[in-house]
Every structure is written in C-alpha cells, then in structure tokens.
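Changelog note: in this version the structure field was regenerated for every chain. One regenerated record is shown below for reference.
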Amino acid sequence: MPELPEVESLTQFLAEHLTGRQVERVHPVSVAALKTYDPPLTALVGRTFAGATRHGKFLDLVVAPTVAPTIAPTSREDAGDPALHLVVHLARAGWVRWNDALPTAPPRPGKGPLALRVGLDGGSGFDVTEAGTQKHLAVYLVRDPHDVPGIARLGPDPLSSDITEERFAELLRSERRQIKGVLRDQAVLAGIGNAYSDEILHAAQMSPFKPAANLSDEEVTRLYQAMATTLADAVQRAHGLALRDLKAEKKSGLRVHGRTGEPCPVCGDTIREVSFSDSSLQYCPTCQTGGKPLADRRLSRLLK
C-alpha cells in the first residue's frame, strides 16, 4: 500500500510534470472508482493543472480556475470557474503510471487494472491503476479537497511543523488502544500505514501491542524521534526516483515489515509475524518485546 513517503514522491513528480499542462481528454475506465459526479470529470477538459499536493495518503492534483475577465464580473459565469481538485486515494494496490506518449485510442472498460486515464497536450498523460481483484481505489473531483470525507477526518501530518513532541504526546495520552493501531489511525496521524508503523516501532524498540496511554515520557520521546527519522529517511530515499522504481525502493528500504523469517538487521534475531484477517505485522522479539514472542491474536498480550 502506498503510504506517506511514496505519495509524497508521487506528489513531487506530478507537480513537476503536470504544472502548466492542459487536459485534452479524460477516460474514467472504472466507474466504481469514481466517487463524485458534480462536477463531472469532463469539467477537466480544456483546463490546466496548477500543481499537486498531498493530504496524508490522498494525492491532490490541483486544476487552475478558468481565467476571470479583466472587468468586474456581474455574475458567476462572468467570474469564471473556481479551481478543481482531482483527488486520488490509491488504497492497497493503486498506483499512478506516467506515459510520455499515451495511446490515442480510448481505453476499453474491462477487468484490467486501468481505472482512469488523463491525456494532456503534447500527447503525454497518466493512468491511475489498481492491481488485484479487490477494488478499493477512489477518485474524486471536488471544488474543495475537504469535501472528500477521508480528508475531512484526517489528523495532522507527522512530518509537518505542527507535530511537536508535546503535541505528539497529547495525541497519545488519551489512547487506550495498542500503539500499532494508533499510529495507523488516519484520524490521529495522517499518512502512516501498516508498513511504516512496523518500521517506526522497530526503530523505537517498542512492542506493537503496548497501550499508547501507558508510554513513559522517555518512550514518547523515543517513538517521536523514530517516527520523524523513519519517515524523513524514506522520503529522502524516494526523492527523484521514477514512478516505476518507487515500489521497489520502498520494499528494499524496509527492515522488518514483509521480512518474516529473515534476520533482524540490528540484532540478528528472527523477525516474526502476527497475522490478522486482512493484514499482518512484523517485529523483532529481541529489539521490541524483551525476547518474548507475541501471540498471534489481535488483542493478545505478551505470552508468559
């Protein structure tokens, strides 16, 4: 699943390649992926991209307003249309593919990975795709990104200047849930998913099952520093990479997530896994749980 570092790199790449480019055609191949109808996707045609930004794991492609007249407008039509936002949530298996020369023929709707195609002036453009049979990718065209329910519910970005250690401690103080779940909760912190929560907890030498409200001041400091360092390092590694290389870079940079059975790069112990119905977490017993394995149940405590 693309998380904050990958979506940040996507944002930087698309901001560079889209800004100033005019939309010539839009093909919504997967109707199920489109979550809004007003304005319609056809409203993008003829308009120009003004940049790209990120809200947690949501990609926000900003479309410039139409040119307003030089005289004072007398009606809404005279004032021109406001900016639009093409917002994409890539879910578990979504991605964006840039193409310097898109096919000229319209894509055929079907069961393939293609969900949306946007063609630009000059023949280039991008595809939004989703692999697998379970389709959760979501595309929105809105006038305000906060019209997207998922964005409206987001907590602060963990890499923003708003997240001081004091603010971070406040967010955790009232949480009785396990710290793994708190880090993944987008209403608490925007952008951290299953992979990077594993990496952050490993760097902080902390059990994923530890209740967030029980953290000592020293543990809060350690977790805060691990979060900032882990995410910043991942963003830096991904910076400037071609879109096709981002997934491989993410996988190669992970130390525990997805590495069940491999030796821990810190202590050499075997990385273990706890499986849930639709996901799993990985951790190092020596680094994180005092050498004790975690029971393979969602609400388990350390085995005694």
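Spot check on this record: The chain is about 30% helix and 20% strand. Residues 165-288 form a domain with the Helicase, Ruva Protein; domain 3 fold (CATH 1.10.8.50).
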